Amino acid sequence: MNFTKRVIFLLIVCLNISTISFAQTDDVDFDQQNTEELAEEEWEDDDEIQVVDVESVENQNIVDQVYAYVDVVQDISQQEEGVVSWALYSDVSGFVAYAPNKERDIFLLKRYDVIKGYDEEESKNYIYIKEYIFNKNQAWDFIYERIYDNEGKLKYFVRRYNTYNSGCAEVAFEESEYFYNPNGDLVKKTYQIYDSQNNPLDIDNCYMDREVYDKYMLLQDFLRTNPLPLEE
After folding, report:
1. Long-range Cβ pairs for the range 208-213 (8 Å, 24+)
2. pTM
């Protein structure tokens, strides 16, 4: 091949390579844009991230009452007495009393903290149940909190979730709160997503898993699936 032909050949090869490179770059940008749009569409119909604001004074009173219960629960949780804990292990059947134990905790599937409260203004009892679901590393993946009134109706439900696989933070946390009136109607719903420093995150930039769970609007339905020995 003479010098002139060699130059022409090299120019053709370079032009072809440039065309391929530009085409690949365009494809990557297109795919990236599509991925972002799909992520936004995915969350549009996601009930977990929806927010419902209080619309009446009556409903606000319900929310305030629940928060008063939560304050009492938090105070009791910090004390040594007043909390009864049960556990479900993979190596035994049925629920047993829980106490922290590294050797036993490798078999831990679920833990339940139970607090029985009393509303002095209403002269009624209520019950708080905190359910932890653990992974194989003995760390919690999900926490569900429930408060049932004296009639066994759900007043308050919380879902908490954490993951190292969100893609938007080293650890990402989700928290949703649900508030219900005595008829079982939702009167308020909150949603937060944040990192380990409590900095808010953008859900559109995160991958957060969605599990199947039941809020259990009635205590009897919850106990039918989770037969805790509450009377002990």
Report:
1. 208/161, 208/163, 208/166, 208/172, 208/174, 209/161, 209/163, 209/165, 210/46, 210/48, 211/142, 211/161, 213/142, 213/144, 213/159
2. 0.81
